[in-house]
Design brief:
Blueprint lengths: L6 E6 L18 E19 L4 E12 L10 E4 L5 E9 L9 E7 L2
Antiparallel strand pairs: 1-2, 1-4, 2-3, 3-6, 4-5, 5-6
């Protein structure tokens, strides 16, 4: 991993046929991998909201995992240090000339 690890995470994956009594899909906290080294960074961005004529602060989370980690867009990751759970909005990879690049995750904090 090229990024400096700040925590370890558990990757949570919901089996495809997990539904509740009404037939609606539900989140299942089935761990696929635990103790995965990760970097989760928080950043605050000030944005102007034209409709409300004011500025607001938007908090974003970015995660990095080892490039060979099995993670999918429908997975969630749980920070083992803080027990916060993040849904994955997007998975990307930076181009590199040597080795396998880290996976870059755009995250949304759910709890």
């Amino acid at each position: 991993m090229r990024a400096r690890a700040t925590t370890t995470v558990t990757i949570l994956r919901t089996p495809p046929d997990t539904v509740d009594a009404y037939g609606d899909p539900t989140d299942d906290h089935t761990p696929v991998a635990t103790g995965v080294l990760a970097s989760i960074l928080l950043s605050n961005v000030r944005q102007y909201v034209r409709a409300e004529n004011r500025t607001t602060t938007v908090t974003t989370y970015t995660g990095r995992l080892l490039g060979t980690t099995d993670v999918r867009p429908d997975d969630r990751i749980k920070d083992e240090t803080t027990n916060d759970i993040y849904s994955i909005e997007r998975i990307g990879r930076f181009p590199t000339y040597a080795g396998i690049a880290d996976l870059r995750l755009d995250l949304k904090k759910t709890t």
